[in-house]
């Protein structure tokens, strides 16, 4: 066995898992630094729909009402200790439920979260049964007919070549 | 009498309507001639079909030319010219005004559809007697007739109008559509993709009608599907670029319903160009592939309905005209007819093959299809969910980017994983030992990418996982390309498998760029006076100048901001005088690591020399466009035949030497 093959057996893979887990854990847990107030305003305004324009977020829109919502968010970010979620709840309360871009996880609206999960489960179950059916259908046990075919082929292979026979040995 | 009609309608109106009526009639005659010739075996009728095809093309070309002439000459006798024309619009944007509103965009759609129909007719002119080709062309003619009908009725671009009231009309296209040269490219290229899927759909319908549901129709349409997919991909990426360069919010994708409408057929189309390989090689998934094509085509119609009917609020939506019910009706007919045909041919669609193991290339394609279809379902559900809630509870809700971001993140990660593993999987069945061998170096590529990302300061679980998986997938694609080019030289870059790997590399770059720019963008807002310098993100920004400007269509303010004391960049904000709409024009310093994106905000006053501007530091954006280019290059390379391609006449069960795949025991 070559050194390369040996490496690919388990030492290399174990090392790989350790490196990935270590760096992933380090990168995930280290402090990303504080967000600037503008970045908080940006993140919050991305979660809110402009109440009067067509399908734009408060962040994208240059409409007067979006400008005033951005100013309100900025005031809340600068002057209060409210969390992002609290600021969003405040804006939604002030400007209406259709400014909330993230559907609720309760009531009828929860369907938008639940249905994709149901679809995924159905697809998974469907695939599982399909593969089971395909594997059952794979005919791996030779019957008498198969054996006869093989024997005939072997006999033909042992027989001396004829004019119509195989060109190459 | 003719003179009276011309006088009543105006020359352009009359010519446009005549062209559309002739084109519509030619579609119907063409379809009728093909059906009659096929059913009655009358070769004389077949000879007329090409003529009808040319008349259809002529009608569509004439309609578009007449409309362009009307726009260029400012023929105010047409309502559409009053809607999107103006004396002040620059020549380029006056030309592109054709597709800046509903009626004209349907004309563009029609033109492209007529071009595709004519090309198919020309390409298969010696095979019109083949029922498969005949029924495919019937489908093309019928679809084209529908768009001629739309252009004549609900979206009549040549409707006559009274004398223009210049206080209320004739203000030119939407300001956002006269602000960047990409308006010349993005819509037509996107439409080439949208409309292009009509060709494989037509052959799928023909396969069902004729009962030849084997692999022949797939071979006929393989390149057409790839061609349409390539244009759709390019169109979507150009849309992102346009958004980035024009809208001034620093993003490329906002999950707007109309953006979603372009993504939906892309997702099902992508699933199709993968799963079609399973059918070609194993004769399986016949119903699935037909359904994916039907879904792709019908989603283009549904997307047009969502965009054009005004049922969904979108920054792209054109109007709330009367076209909605017709498009919805067409969507219903397409779905009903297709499902009816699939049910009718159910007995022939059962495939004898089997997939031996989930751990195989075929198994990976199946998983890919499940994920892409699920992705399409999530996007469709999120897009139409506000309509469902409004219909049920009579209350308005919005579903936007936070929902789509949350849902698409895990789906994207799974797709990256599949892109990493699938190219290394052999067909039929993989052993653990084989996978250990083949995936070793690609996995280390992923680990290396993760390590580099962490050392460069990247944080957060999702983006880091995305970088790692992207490196893994890139390693896998590069491995395939290295193996192929070692054996075949430059030909190792050709063919579906190898061209596909280059597309994979493009998609990986796009995924990495999106993950980085969404996770690590920084933004700061500053108010400065002339000569003042501020510092942000390791750079200095000095306001060099702040001036007012005026053009024929707008007035505005432009700042000159020097970055790090060097070159000055000029973000501006304009107010279009006709509509009063503010449009920001960002200025971008593009770099390999990150872009510095400057926008000027309302409140900048040249009189006092005080400017209010935003700075966005956006990592890796340039790699989005590089990825897009790679997708284009890969698609072109994939369209060239590889060295060992199955001959179209071979039975599916015929042995085939795989394009570049190493033996299972490698």
Task: Report on the architecture of this protein.
Chain A has 169 residues and is mainly alpha-helical. Chain A has three domains: 33 residues; 66 residues, Helicase, Ruva Protein, domain 3 (Orthogonal Bundle); 50 residues. Helix content of chain A is 63%, strand content 0%. Chain A is built from seven helices and no strands. The relative contact order of chain A is 0.06. By secondary structure, chain B is α+β, with helices and mostly antiparallel strands. Among the domains of chain B are: 163 residues; 98 residues, no CATH class. Helices cover 61% and strands 10% of the residues of chain B. In chain B, strands 2, 3, 4, 5, 6 and 7 form a six-stranded antiparallel β-sheet that branches. Chain B is flat and about 80 Å long. Chains A and B meet through helix 1, helix 2, helix 3 and helix 6 of A and helix 15, helix 16, helix 17, helix 18 and strand 1 of B.
**H/I helix tally of chain B:** 20
Gap from first CA to last CA of chain A? 33 Å
Largest interface: A-B, 58 and 70 residues
How much of the residues of chain A is beta strand, in percent? Answer: under 5%
The share of residues in helices of chain A is 55-70%
Largest beta-sheet characterization of chain A: none
Q: What is the residue-mean pLDDT of chain A, rounded to a whole number?
A: 80
Mean pLDDT of chain B: 88
CATH second-level architecture of the largest domain in chain A: Orthogonal Bundle
Structural class of chain B: alpha+beta
The top level CATH class name of the largest domain in chain A: Mainly Alpha
Which bin fits the share of residues in helices of chain B? 55-70%
- Radius of gyration over C-alpha positions of chain A, nearest whole angstrom: 33 Å
Distance between the termini of chain B: 81 Å
What would you say about this model in short?
The complex is a heterodimer of chains A (169) and B (666). Chain A is mainly α.
């Amino acid at each position: 066995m070559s050194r390369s093959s040996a490496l690919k057996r388990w030492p290399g893979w174990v090392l790989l898992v350790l490196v990935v887990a270590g760096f992933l854990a380090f990168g995930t847990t280290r402090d990303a630094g504080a967000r600037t107030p503008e970045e908080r305003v940006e993140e919050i305004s991305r979660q809110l729909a402009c109440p009067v324009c067509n399908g734009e977020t408060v962040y994208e829109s240059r409409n007067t009402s979006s400008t005033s919502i951005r100013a309100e968010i900025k005031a809340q970010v600068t002057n209060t200790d409210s969390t992002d979620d609290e600021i969003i709840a405040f804006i939604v309360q002030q400007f209406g439920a259709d400014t909330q871009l993230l559907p609720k996880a309760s009531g009828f609206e929860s369907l938008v979260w639940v249905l994709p999960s149901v679809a995924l489960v159905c697809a998974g179950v469907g695939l599982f049964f399909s593969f089971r059916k395909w594997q059952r259908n794979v005919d791996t046990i030779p019957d008498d007919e198969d054996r006869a075919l093989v024997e005939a082929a072997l006999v033909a292979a042992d027989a001396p070549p004829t004019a119509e026979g195989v060109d190459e040995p | 009498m003719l003179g009276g009609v011309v006088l009543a309608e105006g020359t352009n109106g009359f010519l446009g309507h005549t062209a559309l009526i002739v084109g519509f009639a030619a579609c119907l005659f063409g379809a009728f001639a093909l059906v009659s010739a096929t059913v009655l075996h009358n070769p004389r009728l077949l000879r007329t079909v090409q003529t009808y095809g040319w008349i259809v093309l002529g009608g569509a070309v004439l309609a578009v030319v007449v409309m362009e002439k009307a726009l260029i000459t400012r023929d105010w006798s047409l309502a559409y010219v009053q809607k999107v024309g103006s004396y002040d619009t620059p020549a380029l944007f006056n030309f592109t005004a054709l597709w800046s509103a509903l009626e004209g965009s349907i004309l563009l759609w029609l033109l492209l559809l007529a071009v595709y129909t004519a090309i198919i007719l020309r390409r298969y002119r010696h095979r019109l007697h083949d029922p498969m080709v005949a029924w495919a062309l019937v489908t093309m003619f019928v679809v084209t007739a529908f768009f001629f009908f739309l252009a004549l009725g609900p979206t009549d671009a040549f409707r006559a109008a009274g004398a223009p009231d210049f206080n209320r009309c004739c203000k030119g296209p939407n300001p956002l559509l006269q602000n960047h040269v990409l308006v010349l490219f993005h819509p037509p290229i996107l439409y080439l993709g949208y409309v292009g899927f009509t060709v494989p759909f037509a052959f799928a319908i023909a396969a069902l009608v004729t009962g030849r549901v084997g692999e022949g129709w797939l071979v006929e349409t393989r390149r057409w599907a790839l061609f349409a997919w390539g244009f759709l991909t390019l169109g979507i990426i150009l849309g992102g670029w346009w958004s980035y360069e024009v809208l001034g919010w620093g993003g490329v994708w906002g999950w707007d319903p109309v953006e979603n409408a372009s993504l939906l057929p892309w997702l099902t189309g992508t699933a199709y160009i993968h799963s079609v390989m399973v059918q070609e090689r194993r004769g399986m998934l016949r119903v699935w592939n037909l359904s994916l094509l039907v879904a792709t085509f019908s989603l283009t119609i549904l997307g047009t309905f969502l965009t054009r009917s005004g049922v969904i609020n979108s920054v792209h939506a054109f109007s709330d005209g009367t076209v909605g019910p017709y498009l919805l009706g067409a969507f219903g007919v397409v779905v009903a007819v297709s499902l009816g045909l699939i049910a009718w041919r159910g007995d022939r669609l059962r495939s004898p093959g089997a997939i031996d193991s989930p751990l195989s290339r075929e198994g990976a394609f199946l998983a890919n299809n499940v994920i892409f279809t699920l992705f399409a379902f999530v996007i469709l559900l999120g897009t139409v969910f506000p309509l469902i809630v409004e219909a049920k509870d009579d209350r308005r809700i919005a579903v936007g980017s936070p929902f789509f971001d949350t849902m698409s993140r895990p789906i994207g990660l799974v797709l990256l994983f599949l892109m990493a593993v699938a190219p290394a999987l052999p067909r039929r069945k993989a052993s653990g030992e084989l996978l250990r061998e083949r995936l070793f170096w690609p996995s280390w590529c992923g680990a290396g990418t993760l390590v580099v990302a962490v050392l460069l300061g990247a944080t957060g679980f999702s983006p880091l996982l995305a970088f790692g998986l992207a490196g893994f997938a890139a390693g896998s694609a590069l491995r395939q390309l290295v193996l192929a080019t070692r054996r075949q030289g430059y030909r190792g870059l050709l063919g579906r498998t190898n061209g596909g790997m280059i597309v994979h590399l493009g998609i990986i770059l796009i995924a990495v760029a999106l993950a980085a720019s969404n996770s690590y963008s920084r933004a700061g807002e500053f108010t400065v006076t002339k000569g003042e310098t501020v510092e942000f993100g390791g750079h200095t920004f000095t306001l060099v100048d702040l001036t007012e400007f005026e053009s024929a269509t707008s007035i505005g303010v432009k700042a000159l901001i020097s970055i790090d004391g060097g070159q000055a960049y000029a973000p501006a904000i304009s107010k279009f005088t006709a509509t009063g709409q503010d449009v920001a024009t960002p200025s971008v310093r593009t770099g390999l690591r990150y872009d510095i994106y400057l926008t000027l905000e309302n409140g900048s006053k040249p009189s006092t020399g005080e400017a209010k501007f935003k700075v966005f530091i956006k990592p890796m954006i340039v790699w989005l466009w590089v990825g897009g280019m790679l997708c284009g290059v890969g698609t072109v390379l994939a369209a060239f035949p590889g060295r060992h391609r199955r001959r179209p006449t071979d039975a599916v069960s015929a042995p085939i030497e795989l394009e570049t795949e190493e033996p299972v025991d490698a």
